[in-house]
Design brief:
The protein is mainly beta. The chain folds into five domains: 94 residues, Immunoglobulin-like (Sandwich), CATH 2.60.40.2950; 118 residues, Sandwich (Immunoglobulin-like), CATH 2.60.40.1940; 104 residues, Sandwich (Immunoglobulin-like); 117 residues, Immunoglobulin-like, CATH 2.60.40.1930; 139 residues, Mannose-Binding Protein A, Chain A (Roll), CATH 3.10.100. Strands 44, 45, 46, 47, 48, 49, 50 and 51 form an eight-stranded mixed beta sheet that branches. Strand 4 and strand 5 form a beta hairpin. The longest helix has 23 residues.
């Protein structure tokens, strides 16, 4: 009986063990990464992954263009981990295919099935335009595909690195040389200017709007050069309403031939006796991994300040650093205790006064300058992260490829009890639309974190600059990733590469980000209320999806990669049919007296509402969202012209740099840096006259100097606004 009981318990334990193994087995996941813009010559790739596959599966990938339906891949997959990068060069793409297309990834197994379609755009191909240094006339391809000769004469302007407001003079030199290095003799005309700032150019004051310029007319010496001592007293260096730089324009008229060669340059005017700058900083931090960076300090002339004490502040802590012989100081911060979504770090020279703003009736004074930087916490639902470093490449080892070191934290929550072996993948990109190569690596990892290395092989046609994307699908179904900029120019010998150029304005194409999952309201928030659930206020959250999107790539997947954000809720007042936004305790605010929009104008695939009431930027957006739209996103010239022709007032548009000064984003998360703008000259300028926080929201205005263009303004001002919603046919 005892033996039977023992056998029975052993059986029960064994079955229990099997159940635990089965329960812990990860679900299968698919992942496809490919460019949003595909050149017509097919010179890029799409990479498809299947992870933790527990059954056989039929996999297809198709590209539907205006002219054809192309099968890029058709495969019967049986491997647990399967990965392949397919080239579009094997497809029949031509000029007729240019335009919108659809890329579909489809998988069918006995129980695991998926299908995902993304819009892509087939573009005209532009050559990289590679050419070599030569003593003969140099030719390069232009935008028409024809060759044009580079100038035979080069004009060099020599200036100091910087001019201090305390300097009485500085030396300007200009030299003419042929492509063979021989001096070019002739007459050199030079203009040295300190211009009035844009704002003051529009004031009715001759004293403030005047630009101070000196004109020089000199003959070159036998070396093809001339030098001049420039007296700075004439330029009023301490007057605050003028640009803090000298702009220099030079023109050489060659003796005998009359050939003209022109060149421009600039030199900053400094009033900072100690300037602190961060170098090689990332905008994100990964909780638990060290955050590293470098600080550089220079004096008034731009020379490094050596053996100088710097104070580094972060997360309510202070740290003292000492610059080396190059004026640099390295730091490494422990992020394990950082719990905020944003961390601000700042650095300044110890015992150096902080900068202060100069008023019009005061002269610019010598001061110090500190540096601030905002770090955003990278989202991971399991708190798992990757962080890449590239090792310096000795010139003789360029053929060996890039050696990468990867710091990581992979938590037990992410592994879900599975073996601690992961299959990671990487992509190498030459620019925003070209995947050069892809590969995968298998590594044993520790749940305590650690470091591993791998080598990225050299591409058949290396380019001087690019990006590496490293990513992995974890057993819990989460996708984590990291990106790193690489520079291979030292490995390209004497070759000069002209990087891929963006197409002309009307060839830039618009892709809308997928919204992240939003967190629904608690029942108490909306009990006995009629409400509308709108998209999140912002969905430019820092996560793996953003890393991939910012490289110009689409991602199709059933993995988890987005940071969830709260849904926006609008409570309807049944008495006056108005909407107000709730912040969780239903203490919302009314959206002015704007009535629901009725007069929608149609253009292309969207409808537009031009308001007759005025709201600030945030309320304008809330109004649009509450009525099934959002502030307008301008994607191309035709849309800009349509909007300009329908505006006679100042209207808010859906563009802001509220998150980070100078980084403009459309409200759908698209970076403005990837699209063309229609800014008025001198805009955006972020003046602080009406709002100390500056101007963080964009509008289309009717300024007499540049009508129907964009300007930045304080988000708190009330203006008309334009709503846009997609037409559903």
């Amino acid at each position: 009986m005892l033996q039977m009981n023992s056998a029975m318990w052993i059986g029960i334990l064994f079955i229990s063990f099997l159940v635990q193994i089965t329960a812990a087995a990860p679900r299968p996941h698919f992942l496809a990464i490919f460019p949003r813009e595909i050149p017509a010559d097919g010179d890029t790739k799409a990479c498809i992954h299947l992870n933790y596959l527990n059954e056989s599966l039929h996999l297809t990938c198709t590209l539907q263009t205006k002219t054809d339906n192309i099968t890029l891949l058709k495969e019967f997959v049986t491997d647990t981990y399967w990965h392949r990068c397919i080239s579009f060069q094997n497809s029949t793409l031509d000029a007729a295919a240019v335009g919108e297309a659809k890329l579909t990834v489809n998988g069918k197994g006995p129980t695991y099935m998926f299908e995902n379609t993304k819009k892509v755009y087939i573009t005209q191909h532009l050559s990289d335009g590679t050419f070599l240094h030569t003593e003969k006339s140099v030719y390069k391809p232009n935008l028409d595909g024809k060759s044009e000769m580079l100038p035979d004469t080069d004009l060099e302007i020599k200036l100091p690195r910087a001019v201090s407001i305390m300097d009485k003079e500085f030396i300007l030199s200009v030299c003419g040389r042929s492509t063979h290095g021989k001096p070019v003799l002739g007459t050199i005309l030079v203009s040295v200017c300190r211009e009035s700032q844009y704002y003051w150019n529009n004031m009715h004051s001759s004293e403030l709007s005047k630009s101070y310029c000196k004109e020089l007319n000199r003959t070159t010496n036998s070396s093809g050069c001339f030098s001049e001592v420039i007296d700075t007293n004439y330029f009023h260096l301490r007057t605050p309403v003028f640009e803090m730089e000298f702009k220099v324009f030079a023109k050489l008229i060659e003796d005998g031939t009359g050939q003209e060669t022109m060149r421009s340059a600039a030199v900053p005017i400094r009033n900072v006796k100690a300037k602190v700058a961060f170098k090689d900083l990332q905008g994100d931090y990964k909780r638990g991994l060290p955050y590293r960076g470098q600080i550089y300090v220079e004096d008034l002339t731009g020379s490094p300040m050596t053996h100088t004490i710097i104070v580094l502040k972060y997360d309510n802590k202070e740290e003292m650093l000492l610059t080396d012989g190059r004026g640099e100081a390295n730091f490494s911060l422990n992020t394990s205790t950082w719990n905020d979504d944003e961390i601000h770090i700042s650095a300044f020279v110890r015992n150096c006064t902080s900068p202060h703003s100069s008023r019009i009736n005061k002269l610019i004074s010598v001061t110090c300058e500190h540096q601030e930087h905002k770090l955003i916490a990278l989202h991971s639902k399991s708190s798992s992260y990757l962080h890449m470093h590239v090792r310096p490449i000795p010139e003789m080892e360029c053929h060996a490829g890039l050696k990468m070191d990867v710091e990581y934290i992979i938590t037990k929550k992410a592994l879900e009890g599975n073996p601690e072996t992961l299959v990671l993948s990487y992509l190498v990109m030459s620019n925003r639309r070209r995947i050069v190569l892809g590969g995968s690596i298998r590594r044993n990892i520790s749940t305590n974190g650690g470091l591993f290395s791998f080598t990225v092989p050299r591409a058949a046609e290396p380019v001087p600059e690019g990006m590496i994307l490293l990513y992995v699908v974890l057993p819990n179904g989460e996708l984590i990733a990291d990106t790193l900029e690489i520079n291979l120019s030292a490995c390209l010998e004497n070759k000069v590469y002209q990087m891929d150029r963006k197409e002309a304005t009307d060839d830039v194409h618009y892709f809308k980000k997928d919204p992240p999952p939003c967190i629904p309201p608690n029942p108490e928030q909306v009990q006995n209320r009629i409400y509308t659930q709108g998209p999140p206020r912002k969905f430019n959250e820092l996560d793996a999806y953003k890393f991939i999107w910012d490289l110009g790539l689409h991602v199709s997947s059933d993995t988890t990669m987005r940071k969830p954000v709260p849904c926006r809720l609008y409570i309807r007042n049944q008495e006056n049919d108005r909407l107000s936004e709730t912040n969780g305790n239903c203490a919302g605010h009314c959206l002015s007296n704007c009535r629901p929009p009725t007069d929608w104008k149609q253009f292309h695939k969207s409808s537009y509402f031009f308001s007759s009431c005025m709201l600030n930027w945030e309320d304008s957006r809330e109004f649009c969202v509450a009525h099934g739209a959002d502030l307008v996103v301008i994607n191309h010239v035709e849309e800009q012209n349509f909007i300009a022709n329908n505006t006679a007032q100042i209207y808010w548009i859906g563009l802001t740099d509220e998150d980070e000064e100078g980084r403009w984003y459309w409200i759908d998360g698209t970076s403005h840096n990837t699209t063309f703008g229609f800014w008025c000259e001198g805009e955006p300028n972020n003046v602080t006259y009406s709002n100390p926080k500056g101007e963080d929201c964009a509008l289309i205005w009717t300024n007499h100097a540049c009508p129907k263009t964009w300007n930045d303004d304080s988000c708190l001002k009330n203006n008309f606004f334009i709503c846009e919603k997609e037409n559903h046919i």
